[in-house]
Amino acid sequence: MTLFNGISPFYPRQQTAFVFAITLLVVILVFLVLTVTFLIILPGIRGRGRIYSFCRVILSLFIGVIIVVVNFTSNWEEGYVTVNTTYKAFSSEIIKARVGLQIGLAGINVTLKGLPVNQLNETIDYNENFQWKFELDYDKESYRRLEQGLPNPILYIAEKFTSKAPCNVNVQYRFSGHYATAMMWVAFCSWVISNVLFSMSTIVYGAYMTLVTSTFMMFGVIAFATTRNVPPCLIHFGPATLKTSLSVSFWLTLATALLCFILGVLVIVMDHFIPEKVRAFFMLNGEDDDMDEVSGGIINQYFADNYANTICLKETKCSIEDQNLTV
Predict the structure, then answer these.
(1) Within the chain, which residues score under 70 in pLDDT?
(2) d(CA 211, CA 265)
(3) pLDDT of residue 24
(4) 83 CB-side CA count, 13 A
(5) Contacts for 157 with CB less than 8 Å, ≥ 6 apart
(6) Mind listing the pLDDT tens digit for each residue in 125-138?
């Protein structure tokens, strides 16, 4: 027990909490750069076109970032419970902590935070991620964490999702997450195509692709929701039970899918009844939408008068030259 300077076996170092997913951070930064870049060039757009461009681009970027980000989040389903439980292997010491389970498309995230954080002369604040991607072996990853000496509550939850666990939820969550991820990436591709079509004169086809985006997002939501048909895996900590429910990423994806559906239908209907206004909103009507009617009339009249005067002077000059030649 004196190995590693008095620290109990299997605990060679103090574990630190997982802070933020690097991939998720990169995705958010990319879309933030795109947003800031657009806001910088926005003052160069005059008149009503500035408002139209702001609404279109910000709404499109919002949909795009939701489609991409939810592939890397771990809160499609989550639950928390406050428990009194053992902390280490081969020890009967009890701690009071808040245990959390977050389930995403690519794995689970288990949190353990002491109440208070400092107990048993240690800082109890863990956030561990277990992935079940097809190129990874979840069982081996779980066993490797066991060798590292993670706290009992984390290992207990991770064991529930192994392929040999009695709950038998590993296959369902793994395949549901895989298909949901595939549907979300197809939705992202259709979102890109819809933006390209909206920037051209084929507005109605852009609306159709927006409906396709909504459809595949709904397929992704439905694919993950099939996990609710599996008998719940009970996670007991004494008298307390950890229960999970559909969470932020699931409902945000569903809301964004409905938003895409409403926008697609709205553009199709408006393109049928008032196509001129739709083309004006997308700045494809071939007119200068940056000027109002009064300013436009004055400027046009100014250029028309100058053009007429120029023609008149030329004709007068030509007439004088013809008279001189005749004489």
Answers:
(1) 1-21, 286-327
(2) 8
(3) 80
(4) 24
(5) 99, 101, 108, 110, 235, 242
(6) 999 989 887 777 88
- 16, 71, 190, 249, 288 from 68: Cα distances, Å: 28, 6, 12, 11, 36
Q: SS3 for the chain, per residue?
A: CCCCCCCCCCCCCCCCCCCCCHHHHHHHHHHHHHHHHHHHHHHHCCCHHHHHHHHHHHHHHHHHHHHHHCCCCCCCEEEEEEEEEECCCCCCCEEEEEEEEEECCCEEEEEEEEEEEEECCEEEEEEEEEECCCCCCHHHHHHHHHHHCCCHHHHHHHHHCCCCCCCCCHHHHHHHHHHHHHHHHHHHHHHHHHHHHHCCCCHHHHHHHHHHHHHHHHHHHHHHHHHHHCCCCCEEECCEEECCEECHHHHHHHHHHHHHHHHHHHHHHHHHHCHHHHHHHCCCCCCCCCCCHHHHHHHHHHHHHHHHHHHHHHHHHHHHHHHHHHC
In the structure encoding, which two tokens stand for residue 244, read together? 């999970």
Give the pLDDT of residue 299: 44
Residues 73-85 pLDDT 10s: 989 999 999 999 9
